[in-house]
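Weekly structure sync, notes
Attendees: PL, DS, HV (note-taker this week)

Item 1: Peptidase M23-like protein
DS walked through the input record. Source organism listed as Modestobacter roseus. Sequence as pasted into the shared doc:
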Amino acid sequence: MPVTETVVLRLPFDGTWRAVNSPARRVPSHGSDLFATTHAIDFVAVAGQEPARRRDWRTALATEPPERFVGFGRPVLSPAAGRVVTVHDGEPDHAARRSVPARLSYALTQASRARGGAGALAGNHVVLAAGDGAYVVLAHLRAGSIGVRVGQHLEPGEPVGECGNSGNSTQPHVHLQAMDDADPFRARGVPMVFAGLRVWPAGGGPPAELRHGMPGEGDVVEPW
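Item 1 (cont.): predicted structure, written out as tokens:
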């Protein structure tokens, strides 16, 4: 059934996270409509303004262990009320890549990951039927952390798993998207907004408390 309205969601975490690849900046937000990512958004946990607990030579020249990132292992929460329709676990959490050399070498394997199916792209993930024909994906979860099962009903804010670095991911983060089918290979992306969020603008200034909104690129957000 076509989804005719914007999907309203809860932020899928507590604490402060930075918005990356936001549809407030551009649509399609991830540069393509493939895999229903048209209106998707990524969130990277931060402490202050930093996503990781340390920087060293590996940050500039090589890969880094995902455990040094603030978000790795943080709880990921259900963004909506609904029924779990897909659970995929067992994909490994791989090394993080912030350096230019590491990111370039990783980009060369992008095509092979696209051919590898949902697990190679989304990593460990959960799909939730959120009502009115909308489905919501939480992707790149930590291996072995998913604590829900197919058929289970969730309420907003209930634990789903933990933030990881599985699948097509260069550092630990949460990927969230809404779509009109449970299968991202045949679905279309659906617009979404978040309810009850506090936003620190990327350009500086005091935070704003929004009843509904979509954070801009680089904004730091937390539930309000």
